[in-house]
Design goal:
With 711 residues, this protein is of the alpha+beta class. The chain is built from 15 helices and 19 strands. The strands form five sheets. It has a six-stranded antiparallel sheet, with no helix packed on it. A hairpin with a 3-residue loop joins strand 18 and strand 19. The two termini are 77 Å apart.
């Protein structure tokens, strides 16, 4: 909270207090304070009459202590007050302003019942069970007359001030309305300041929990805000509950003083002495008595008013005087901000003693004890703000000194750093060049080693598999019309059987027949096994050929012939049509005539591998297809490139596999390949300075996009 904000608050309170106070005491002829009364403890219904003998009545200022004999109990007993009001002007638009009544009330004007609080049955021995809220009562002309008017009050007195907290005011309705609304706004404004200070410093305390005086100050404002709001009875406009008024006024007031002393001692870093501890114990005991009495008397503080209120006010005089002494002592000890604390306590003392003169009827006004507490809180708030600012300034000075040292040291380091920066720049440049060269060398060596190893292995394996294929080919027919060796043997055995049949007896021929059948069965088994071996040998030859082609791709150079891509693609589709139809695959094409410079075998390998890859995606025996098996081939001219797209409606490629599909020997379907096809065509495409991309979503299919420069 800024010091300027706090100053504005304090100035506004002082100025407004003076204005409101002036409106309270500067009565015009249209308003009158009804303070001079006649008092009688004789409860006679005729006391309300306008014309009675008043010689036995006791003159009484209703705001002072009653000069009557001690009464042990006021419970249920009724008392009477009378006063005369001279009205020489008009009797219209008149009203009376009633403060809080601490008991039941019956209000008579010229013998007629004007207002009845209906809160107590007079004459019954029980404590009134409710307070009466402050209010502005409008008086109709039929109650008044010009000349002498008699006002009579019948009250069930619970205090020494006639049962009222303040003066009764009679006068013009508009004038009193202005006074009423002004006081209402004023009380709400003071309450708002207290609650605002409570919330603000409670929030501030959450950041500085070690500084307990902030918490004491916050709680003091909380109790003070509640006390300010209920002290004048405005709580009754929310609830007509005597418990709320007694607890929030008489019970809470001692806690305001306890937390006030705790704040001052904690802020001044002074240990509490026996005197202030005694005051705190006294106030806590008073609060306890109020609580117990409220439990006994249904929320009413009867004995508090009778026995404790005056001692409490007298102790408050001593308490505030001792706090002045403590702050003066702190000034002598040169405690930080002790002067400001003294100013706040001095303001409270001035307002308190002014209010005492009001209570003694020396000054005709309302007490300003509420304003005194608020001004004191605002002064304390300026103290806290100044303390926080001072701490911040000290930290800022330390920070500036530290920053200066850092700047000096930084300048020294900058000089040294400038000298190193040039050398470091050259080193970084050299390291970058070496790193790039090293990566190139490692990549070249790795590729060369892979290709050399793969090429040598593939060459030897292909030779061995070719020899095995040659031998198997002599046993297994390689053409459709060619007869296998096993079939020839079976035919020869059949001819031998027919020739020897006439020469051998039937029993022997039967044995020979069984033997020949076993021989045929064995030859069929051998032929089936050799067929499996032949198929595996063919796959091995195909694999070794792929490896050999991959190992030799680095030696491939760009072709220099004009190749019609439409013819290359159409040839591949025509060759594959019958086989793909057998798998239930259909083609969809969008092919334009595009001529590029290169080698038709290279482009044939690129397109064929992509189409075969799509076929594998559509013929996976582990996948259930619910849509059409379709391969779409597109070839178009796009700027200076030939754009080739091959799309299938397969199950797509998982996202975690997309970045690896061009790696050598990586395959998601090992049963149909070894993972060199895409790697092989990727290198072929790079030889032509082209690019290959893949777009795929699981379950949605895959699209390979190849861009080959036209020149």
């Amino acid at each position: 909270m800024s010091k300027f904000t706090l100053f504005i608050f304090a100035f506004w309170i002082v100025l407004s207090s003076a204005v409101v106070g002036q409106s309270r005491v500067d009565w015009s002829k249209e308003t009158v304070i009804l303070s001079n009364w006649l008092y009688s403890e004789n409860d006679n219904p005729s006391n309300k009459a306008a014309n009675i003998d008043e010689k036995a009545w006791i003159p009484q200022d209703i705001s002072n202590k009653l000069p009557i004999l001690e009464i042990d109990s006021y419970e249920g007993k009724a008392f009477w007050y009378r006063t005369h009001l001279q009205i020489e002007s008009e009797i219209e638009d008149k009203a009376i302003l009633l403060p809080i009544a601490f008991s039941g009330l019956q209000f008579y004007i010229n013998g007629n019942l004007f207002y009845d609080s209906s809160m107590v049955n007079f004459g019954e021995k029980k404590v009134p069970y409710q307070y009466d809220k402050p209010q502005l009562l409008r008086i109709t002309p039929n109650y008044l007359k010009r000349g002498d008017n008699v006002i009579a009050l019948r009250v069930s007195n619970m205090s020494f001030d006639g049962g009222f907290d303040g003066n009764l005011v009679f006068g013009n309705f508009n004038k009193l309305s202005y006074l009423w609304i002004t006081n209402l706004i004023w009380v709400f404004f003071l309450t708002f300041i207290s609650i605002y200070l409570f919330l603000y410093y409670l929030f501030y305390y959450s950041y500085r929990p070690k500084e307990r005086y902030i918490l004491y100050f916050s709680i003091m404002n909380f109790y003070m805000g509640i006390w300010l709001f209920t002290y004048k009875g405005f709580l009754f406009y929310f609830t007509l509950n005597s418990w709320g008024y007694s607890l929030f006024t008489f019970f809470i007031a001692p806690f305001v003083l306890v937390f006030l002393s705790n704040f001052i001692y904690s802020f001044l870093d002074t240990k509490q002495d026996k005197i202030i501890r005694g005051f705190n114990v006294l106030y806590l005991l008073i609060a306890l008595v109020v609580l117990i009495e409220c439990l006994v008397h249904n929320g009413l503080a009867f004995y508090y008013f009778k026995y404790l209120f005056e001692p409490f006010i007298q102790s408050l005089m001593l308490f505030l005087g001792y706090l002045l002494y403590i702050t003066i002592k702190a000034i002598r000890q040169k405690k930080p901000f002790a002067w400001r604390i003294l100013i706040g306590i001095a303001f409270l003392n001035i307002c308190f003693y002014y209010s005492v003169f009001v209570f003694l009827n020396i000054i005709k006004s309302d007490p300003i004890l509420n304003e005194g507490f608020i001004i004191m809180s605002l002064v304390f708030a300026t103290v806290l703000a100044k303390r926080f600012t001072t701490t911040f300034d000290q930290l800022e000075d330390l920070n500036i000194n530290l920053e200066n040292k850092v700047v000096d040291r930084t300048k020294q380091l900058v000089v040294a750093n400038d000298e190193l920066s040039v050398t470091n720049e050259h080193l970084n440049k050299t390291l970058s060049e070496l790193e790039i060269a090293q990566k190139k060398i490692i990549k070249m060596e790795k590729e060369a080693t892979e290709k050399q190893l793969a090429g040598g292995f593939a060459h030897e394996m292909r030779n061995a598999l070719a020899g095995a294929k040659l031998v198997i080919g002599k046993i297994i027919p390689q053409k459709e019309n060619e007869e296998s060796l096993c079939s020839k043997n079976s035919t020869m055995l059949k001819e031998i059987f027919l020739k020897i049949k006439p020469l051998v007896d039937p029993k022997t021929m039967q044995d020979i027949a069984f033997l020949m059948r076993d021989i045929n069965t064995n030859e069929e088994t051998i032929e089936r096994i050799l067929g499996i071996v032949s198929s595996s040998t063919n796959r091995g030859l195909r694999v070794t050929t792929e490896i050999l082609n991959y190992s030799e791709v680095g030696q491939v150079t760009k072709g220099e012939f004009i190749v019609n891509m439409e013819s290359v693609i159409q040839k591949i589709l025509n060759e594959s049509q019958e086989e793909f139809t057998g798998y239930g695959i259909t083609f969809q094409t969008d092919i334009e005539k595009v001529e590029i410079l290169g080698n038709d075998d290279h482009f044939d390998s690129i397109v064929k591998n992509l189409i075969l890859n799509s076929k594998d995606a559509l013929t996976d025996k582990y996948t259930q297809y619910t849509k059409e098996k379709l391969i779409k081939v597109v070839c178009k001219k796009e700027d200076n490139f030939c754009r080739i797209e091959v799309t299938d409606t397969g199950m797509g490629i998982k996202k975690e596999h997309l970045h690896r599909i061009f790696d050598p020997f990586f395959s998601t379907k090992p049963s149909t390949g070894i993972g060199l096809g895409l790697g092989y065509i990727s290198k072929l495409i790079s030889i032509y300075n082209g690019k290959i991309e893949v777009e795929s979503e699981p379950g949605e299919g895959t699209t390979f996009i190849v861009r080959l420069p036209l020149e």
